[in-house]
Amino acid sequence: MPAEHIIDFDAIDLSEVIATRDDLAVFLKQRGRFAMLDGILYENVEEQVIVGFKEIRSDDWWTEDHIPGRPLFPGALMCETAAQLGTYDYMKHRGQVEDGSFVGFGGLDRVRFRGIVEPECRMIFAVRLTRARRSMFVYKTQGFVDRRLVFEAEVIGVVV
What we know:
Elements: E1 19-20, H1 21-25, E2 39-44, E3 49-56, H2 75-94, E4 103-113, E5 121-132, E6 136-145, E7 148-159
Antiparallel strand pairs: 1-2, 2-3, 3-5, 4-7, 5-6, 6-7
């Protein structure tokens, strides 16, 4: 059974981009094709929730090969996008990361893919911090297309 949504679509405004790819690049190390997020739409530091998005386009680098004739946004890239959103939140609001350190994947738990994601659409990602220590954090993550839950996972990040 799908989990309760992290966000209430009717209670928050997701129409305005509050952080761009350039803003994200200050906190995230991924570049080029692996800079997955296109922007941030909502932040609530007290509730430990942040919402970002990725435009799923027919000219994205993965569309030709996954799957030929019917491009499907890969689940592995959903996980990566959610991880980058959690990392952005951790680095911006919560982390005490030393210069030269990197935040990387520590693991995934409770991953579920609940719908197909195809171009052209905007995939909304919402994450909520559930646990944080000096060198490790865990985010509950969800992905939505047209307000429909299509992905969820717990993402573990580690400072290395």
